[in-house]
## 1
Amino acid sequence: MEFEKFTLLEIVNMLKNKTVSSEQLTKYFISKIEEKKSLNAVLEVFDDAINLAKEADKKIQAGENGKLLGVPVIIKDNILYKGKKCTCSSKFLKDYIAQYNSTVVEKILQEGGVIIGRANMDEFAMGGSTENSAYGITHNALDFDRVPGGSSGGSAVAVAGGLCPVSLGTDTGGSVRQPCSYNGIVGIKPTYGRISRYGVVAFASSLEQVGPMTKTVKDNAYMLQILSGKSINDETSADIPVEDYLSQIKGQINGLNIGVCKEVMQMMSGLEVEKIFLQVLEWLKSNGANLIDVSLPNFDLCLPCYYIIAPAEATSNLGRFDGIKYSTRSDKAENVDQIYTKSRSEGFGKEVKRRIMLGNFVLSSGYFDAYYNKAKKIQIKLKEQAKDIFKKCDVLLFPTTASEAFKLGSKTDPVSMYKEDMFTITANILGIPSLTLPFAKGKSNLPLGLQIMANNFEEGKIYNLADYIENNWRWK
Amino acid sequence: MEYDIVIGLEVHAELKTESKVFCSCKNQFGAEPNTNCCPVCIGLPGALPVLNKKAVELVIKAGLTIDSQINNIAVFERKNYFYPDLSKAYQISQLVKPICVGGHLDLQNKSVKINRIHLEEDAGKLTHQSENIGTLIDYNRGGVPLMELVTEPNINSADEAVEFLTKLRERLIFADIAECKMEQGGMRCDVNISIKPKGSNILGNRTEMKNLNSFKSVHRAIEYEVKRQIEAKEQGKEIIQETRKWDDEAGISYTMRKKETSQDYRYFPDPDLLAIEISDEEVEAIRKTLPLLPEQLKEKYVNEYKLTEYDANIITKDKYLISYFEEVCAHYNNPKTVANWILTEILSKIKDEDEPIIKISPLKLAEILSLIENGKITRTIAKEIFTKVWENDSDVDKLAKELGGEINEDYLCNLIDKIITSNPKAVADYRTSDTPEKQLKWFVGQIMKETKGKANAKLAEEKILEILNKTQG
Ligand SMILES: [Zn+2]
């Protein structure tokens, strides 16, 4: 059987009904990883995966329950899984072994999931193409010559390429949604605080969230529920009850108020995605939804805000990789200062260094008010503007990216790469949930993603609309 | 020329909490290296801090003892710098919104203004070993809660600085905020020093003195630095703004780093921690837990307990002594007597010890004092019992019986009978004397002689009177 053809929910049922064993599935997906090694999506298959699958099978035989019992899962290489390597695709952490489990890994294990490997990414999640990995580039699952997007490129390709039914990514500025869009799958950046960040190697702490990456909307809703919840180890995780997201999927959108943002429409003008985006809006209207014109006056400032706040936090978060602890210490260092400078010069890649320098600049005395403080003030203003929007509408629609996945090596200028995040960054700056699902094909017959956003902790509304589009909008 | 000396202090004290400030590891001095550690306090990737509310309470408490204003919102920030003892390459501290703002601490002759008190985490500790081993890091201290108190620069002499520190330390220990053990690094102090021509408003360049491990070294370092600055000024040299390190053994300080090379800490709010919200109700609840300060206690002891100024002074010098005193008084309601015993018997026993321990429980001392008052034992016996309890923690009642201190009334009456019968002349004298009290004292003296001082004089006197009156007729 070709197990990659099944959705996560189907696989969960097959395991429950014992039409397939976890061992069978795990072996199958591991062989797929082997077969598609050239994609370079998965950095390591964990050597205890098959044993864990066998244990899961025993539990299934014994009648035990677990929402992921026996399901193979792949995690991004910045999520800690005790006893396993976690490199963040950086040379700096080439031999680093996780000393404890992240909350999300803990939750997957509690539900009986079998974590089979870790996926490639842009070094420390900085990048939008998975070309910034110390362990080689990852290829798009649908077109070998194109980027898979990033930074969670490996995780997206793992699902789209049939290497596992579900994977985890992290999203700081679009790092789950953009690669999902480029590979034609579903991914969510939940509300900030919905999922605990404990045990996820931090890049920009105030912006990022773990997000599940799946083939379908329902799979995604199922997975988000498992990962969500308050953690005593993370003050920023929200103490708000977790909903049963699947039950929020009602199969109709009558009377749903959909926000269409003026500034986004202007930004989209002339882009590849524009025409189809307008079509889907019309179609939604004809299916009973109300289109509401809204405005996010400072939409254009999201990108500059992000590239000030994120590097500032990153600079500080990555300070601990100083050559004193962890894998890399330069042989050439002769004193403490040289341990710092030489180890960091040798251990970090170009993009990481660029952002560290950017972050240090915006935090340095004399510039702090002009950059960091101003960005934080704009962020507060943007949040107020968003509040007004969600008084009028249930969801907000954006495209995920301007166009299809671009060619490997085609974007060499960092600013053009940063602009990749133009539509996704808004949700990180606002903290609101945002999901992407494939909704169209571009001129090279590659998928384009549609982004659905909602007010904080209203993921249920997003899943309802996304599921409706997935099942009723004809585009394939 | 004459100069004004301008001094500001930055005082760090480790807070007395069970666990560290952002994780549940033990806050404990002297454990095996790297045993009180976890992913959070060694700064492993992915680990996140979770605030220990107790540490905030203690800082609020510290603020209340010096009349600070408590901010309703306080924010943690990251102070970024590289040092091997700093596991995350940043220290979680507070800059823009500390917990406490303002306040004052009154000295003998002036009120020292306080700028702020904030909460931060301590760093680990480096130990430099032999060359082939290198430097080792112990992260046990990493994440221990620290309060940092910053004064305004309105201290004007080494004496005032030390008076301030002594008083502050006393209060922190008193209110159970910090133990302030200088020798363990539990209290540390940096001193900013500058001079200016007397009466001038223009501040001179200041230097910051580090590595001051005792009040004595604070005093010496200030004297040294003031002298150095005055000499430089007189010779027309410029005083350079710099950080200096005090070498206590050599009695000198030297340049650690100049201002130009000083670090930019790139502070910004820590995104991993929520702002601390402190309600007025919370502050009031904490205020209620504040114990009376030594000065206030002294007043109470003199006015209510009728202790002498001198006695009250000595008892309120030491937190341990105060709680001991209070507890004895709780069982034996005569503070004057209690104070007497503490000052004479107890202090003479512990005065030479470094870590004085009173080896008699408050309850047992109260028992002994009650026995004296009830006439069951004499002071002499009481002292004997006291010594035995101190040495062996023995039972007070049993000792009282064993030592015969508790002179049985029958025995006492028999003895009185005997003395009266064998001294008819004295009896006659008593009956005819103008000053029978004097004669009475003679009888008491005889009893004491016979009992080797063990009888209770008061009781003896009563009994003698009783018997003499009975035999009269
Ligand atoms: Zn700890």
## 2
Amino acid sequence: MKRGAGPTAKGVGARLERREDARYLLGRGRYVGDIRLPGMLEIAFVRSPLAHARLCRLDKPAEGGDRVFAAADLVGVAGIRADSGLPGFRSSVQPILAEAKVRHVGEPIAACLAETRALAEDLAERVELDLEELPAVHDMLRARDPEAPLLHEHWDENAFLETAVDRGFEAAIRDAAVVVKRSYRTARQCMAPLEGRGCLAVWDRHLELLTLHSATQMPHIVRTGLAECLGLDHGQVRVVAPDVGGGFGYKGILLAEEVCAAFLAMKLDRPIRWLEDRREHLIAGANCREHAYEVTGYAAADGELLAVDCQAIVDSGAYSSYPFSACLEAAQVGSILPGPYKMRGYRCRTWSVATNKPPILPFRGVARTGVCFAMELTMDALARELGMTPEAIRLRNLVAPAEMPFTNITNKDFDSGDYPEALRRVVEAIDVQGVRARQAAQSGGSRIGVGFAVFCEQGAHGTSVYHGWGIPMVPGFEQATARLTPDGGLELRVGVHSHGQSLETTLAQIVYEEIGIDPAKVKLVHGDTAYTPYSTGTWGSRCIVMAGGAVAAASATLGERIRRIAAHLMQADPDDVTLADGMARAGSSEIPLAEVARTWYRAPQLLPDDVDPRGLEATEGYKTVRDTGTFSYAAHAVVVSVDLDLGDVKLLDYVIVEDAGTMINPMVVDGQVHGGAVQGIGTALFEEMPFDAAGQPLASTLADYHLPVAADIPAIRILHMETPSPLSRFGQKGIGESGAIGPPAAIANAVNDALAPLGVEMTEVPLTPERILRALARAREVAA
Amino acid sequence: MKPAPFDYLAVDDLAGATAALADGAKPMGGNQSLGPMLNLRLARPAALVDLSLVPELRTVEESAEWVRLGAAITHAEIEDGEVPDPTGGWLRAAAANIAYRAVRNRGTLGGSLAHADPAADWVIVMTGLCATALLAGPSGTRRVPLEDFLTGPFATGLRDGEILTAVEIPRPGAGARWGYWKYMRQVGEFAKASAAVLVDRERGRLRCTVGALGRQPLVLAEPEALLAAEVTPREALAQALPGRSPADLALHATALARALAEAGIGDAA
Ligand SMILES: Cc1cc2nc3c(=O)[nH]c(=O)nc-3n(C[C@H](O)[C@H](O)[C@H](O)COP(=O)(O)OP(=O)(O)OC[C@H]3O[C@@H](n4cnc5c(N)ncnc54)[C@H](O)[C@@H]3O)c2cc1C
């Protein structure tokens, strides 16, 4: 029988229902906003109304002014610094509260404290600012112009970093039969977890300990950053992440607001809470994704992709944020643009430019969503130029299964898989032939089209990949502690944190797989730096590979110790003892693990003389066989209908074929893929955070910032392939971000398939009705 | 995003509400439009008087000619058929497409009309159905046809201290036809373009109304020409709004064409 199948399966591969669901679905989760402490004060921040200005004066109100704190009050507090070690990186310091200058709308200037948020906002209204407005840098394409005002005055141009790669480019293009050149844009977005950011800081005089309860997905990293900004020993800082209502990358970032709340809690010796509201979140918080590309694709007459040339600009905003820095996005563009394809030559230059906008932060998929958009639209453009079908040109150039493992042109090590097969399956599932027949017959005011995107996603990549970036954080061994409790249950401690990944379920399944303890008896302890091993946390689609591997290793070590004690109690040979269903068995004898635990903790007189003194608690560190990352991959296909009068795009059908390697819990994988795909559809069709020429954000409420809603989403069909990764413990691959990568490319390709006969080619997301109508009107003008 | 301090006044009846208005309080219906403005501190009234439970504003009156729906009746009550629908379902269908259910549970007919968002549903539907606003104020009551009540974007003919108490909706005659079409990209959004078409020959009411134009609803002067397809929606709109570019009106022309089609008036595009 297949691993994990059957109704009672609980181990690797089982569709076990989520253990956390009871808590979440009944509204019993506990988030930062649910925590109240006696004497607590709430913060409302005075934020910059201007994108770029000198802060000449700040007047605290006569009444309540002692509850208002500005930069000068933050004695001994350092700003946030996240430098990259890449050559040429220009360093910025993000002040906790703005000092001489403000660099984006929404930048915190003063913290106002009161018993309630409403009273704090009343106080904040009475703080007066004297700002001398400076010209704002709002357009990333012009940020590096010599006449552009400098954001950071010690810089020589508004760019954090420039990178360049060239792999045999000139030689490769000589045989090109066709060349296509395109400009692409992805909009600035604002990732939108249901729960915003928030924190509650408490200073404990007795322990001399600062505890920061924070909605974070990376508690240990926040702890390190916080200790550094505040000049505290790590031992004086504890970060607790309770239930976290979605993160998507935003909650991996150390925020100035957190440092400020922590400082004030220490200074005033009172609990201080800040809960981000949706307006702060949209204006100042979770910006992401703004890319511009100039891509030239070169192909031979038979469709072979010869080379790609790219210049990419990422609008990194005003500051380098901690810990991922301002350049991860653009620099990654250079290394991952080739996607799942083979090519002979490649050249790419990137710039991470600084503008008067909030710092750009990593959002699910990080650079991949933009890269996939640029690459996959280029593949379609080449196909049209060559008169090939989109599927044919892709099949011609995808890395073949026989070539795996494959080192691509930018030295990415694809670990395993059958990329062409994923495409073939999705082509069949979406019924391309049927779509073509319907297209031939269509008339009237709408057009249908079909589009594809194929990509691979590096996940769980580790030290060798990250040390090169030289950012404040490099993942190493991932650790887990497994402890058999006196009643035979298992306590599992991990440094990653779940913000929706179902780790309470999937890590328990891994324990079951290793040592047969029922997932219902596995207690996951996570989200608290005091209880868990150091970890860079939850990001980069790494948890199930890295924490899963660590849990397996710790469970195995613990299992070995359990077996030895059990063998002694059963008078059996340790090698004959097996662990399953909460029992240790040898031949015809068996004893419950609870008995083993009871012996170690409460009846040690019964232990063998040579018992391992480390007992029933094991910590193990884990790395994959090679730390270059697992590569999950997927093929997306979508059928759209475009209303020519409205410019409206409807998704008629959506199929995803994806390969997450061995699925620890297929239901959870589906959930990850669905959630990601919905966010990708948001990128494709709806989400956009526009700024005007003065650097003012124009979508400051959810009435203006459009998120995808249930009615926009078709019933997405997911088909699995399961090629185990040779690198990870069970063959699992990181899949957390995958869903969010493909939709903009697939949907834009489908819209272009629908509108190509009318002379329209869309190259910018989101595909709003306004953009489509404008393109249709332009095409009509050209035709006339 | 917390409102500036204000007083909240609950009153027993319309007289109490009128008195509160005379003292400077601002009326509050379901608070679905006002609430966000309070939270953003764009509205800073010193006091709010809650109209949502005022008995006179919660009543329904019926005659052979019309139905009067109290201003504090909610979108959801209309959607659910808890109040009579003189049009045999057109109101219910329109109500069911306003915002989403949480907003409909609280948002009121009167609040929506008094707020006079150019893109709001009742603003165009009630104008399109030739309804009349019933107002009560310090100097008594008066009746104003909706097309006159709505005077501009977010502007009405409500005078100081006046309350919108009810909307009188004429009963359509036999064989009357109706088309209401709006374009919103997502469920829960306001319309980007909308139009309503009423063809009620028995009662002599023909009306083509266009909404979401950033102004009060546009009631086209010569609906017959449109119904007879002598002019296209595009031409009709260009004539009615000569100051606007054809590109600006394209979406609205589409809305009008689709409303005509919904009313069964041929393929008028
Ligand atoms: C997310 C969201 C989506 C929405 N989408 C739509 C939509 O698609 N279509 C649509 O039509 N509407 C939409 N709305 C608006 C909604 O229908 C509101 O209910 C309506 O606009 C206002 O009604 P209210 O009762 O809430 O009025 P309130 O918000 O309480 O008041 C609005 C204004 O009217 C005044 N007022 C209220 N009642 C009276 C009265 N009886 N006499 C005089 N003045 C009065 C108030 O003083 C205030 O100025 C949406 C609202 C939200 C929050």
## 3
Amino acid sequence: MKYQSQKVALAYFVCAMGLFGIQVLGGLLAGWIYVSPNFLSELLPFNIIRMIHTNALIVWLLLGFFGAAYFLVPEESERELYSVKLAYLQLILLVVGTLGAVGSYLVGIHGGREFLEQPLWVKFGILVAALIFLFNISMTVLAGKKTAITNVLLMGLWLLSLLWVFAFINPENLSLDKMYWWFVVHLWVEATWELVMAAILAFLLLKLTGVDREVVEKWLYVIVATALFSGILGTGHHFYWIGLPGYWQWLGSIFSTFEVVPFFLMMSFAFVMVWKGRKNHPNKAALLWSLGSSTVAFFGAGVWGFLHTLHGVNFYSHGTQITAAHGHLSFYGAYVALNLAIFTYAMPMLRGRAPYNQVLNMVSFWLMTGGMAFMTFVLTFAGTIQTHMQRVVGDYYMEVQDGLSLFYMMRFGAGAAVVIGALLFIYSLLVVRKREVITPGAANPVIGG
Amino acid sequence: MAEFLTKSRARNVFYGGSIFFVVVFIALTVQSHRYVVTTSTAGMPLSEEVVLGKRVWERHSCINCHTLHGEGAYFAPELGNVMTRWGVQDDSEGAYEILDGWMSAQPSGIEGRRQMPHFEITEEEMRGLAEFLRWADQTDTQGWPPKDAG
């Protein structure tokens, strides 16, 4: 760690991991209700649990992004953060807001737009926190060295914060409500977040592989160009069946097909950089997460997204377990795994230790990734059957669901593996003090990084 | 990567192209907004009852179990066409009665079956909710869903 102010990232990462724990436990509970529907049904209904599951996910990913920005911007800009105090103030606002939202949900106070259920005061709190962040990080970058990584990272974070304004716009017309709702939801995860992801990934690969900055930054611009060129009009794949004009079926199909490209490029980028890199960085777990994230993102967001994005397919598969399968693997690959990569990279430095307990961390990678892959497969099978029985044959929803119980049991098992992996990951970063139990071989010498 | 593609060229393509797509997207959004108001949802007035119903729908976060036009959670049936499925799309009073009957019977308490919670909803709100679901059902959704099952 070169700059003292990078330390604020530690607090962000710890809070993010706390919420990560809550998120996966909420998911496990929701998965159990699919298996045993009477469980907690009067005390804590499914809709509340799902709200906590999705909201905790979004907030912890954002905390991770903010923390990552506070960690990498000083190093890129070659100067201390503009204000450490503002960074902590921002974190306090976000944590109070999140706990306030969870508390409200538990007593039944919530909005009813999916993912944007936060009470109004929490939404304002998030807005204020975002403004503090943008001010703080922009002042840092403006006063320091500007690189492609900070350019792209800042652009992503500025745009995603601006799009948050649409969280406050809720037209009385349902179709308009849905259209503007996607301005937050789609333009976050399929456009602006990709900029943040690509920037963080570029930073990690620069540090882990030692490839020339010029090469890394050229890739970065090409990747984010393909992300926005496909992703902006790709919003159309959400506009097929909600009351918008028919031309979105063609625009959405064509442009969202190209949404595979940035994910394919990010995966290629990661592997090519490692191939070309001369550095043998000691933090192997961070490298595993970086490669794993770009690979799983390609399959989850790219392949599983394309699977049901063409309007002729989506007409039948829209809003089935196919969507759930895609949602889980894409979020895990693109944003969860990437956050865990930067946590794994930064934590040893933030805590002033050598990269330790890598094996435990890598075990957690395989547990989580294996669990998510299995979950994706069973939900895809369930969704295929559901699509056929409900959308082609025309059987009623609950009758079809009753026939899918085996898949939901397997999904619960997969979810349990993910939860164990997540807890193991948190344990390996926060608790364990020992170095790895397996000594690296002689052919794989550990040189300082 | 090819030599003609320098870093600054890649950057310029990124900025220029993004601005182009943002402009196109905004233009299409304006057109779509108009289309929704004048065409696809114009079959039924956006009355006070419908608006009240939307607020009721939101306050109870129905979207975190059900889907509406295919969006939401996948734990409970699609509701964008529920009034058609119940055969009361053209019958305001019938829509209220069947919805009220269904919701006051929840939770069913049947072992092994997904449970819908009990909601405190007044008669006025219940009428609003029924009108809101009829309003959603009349939206031109390009023929979706393929079957009445939702």
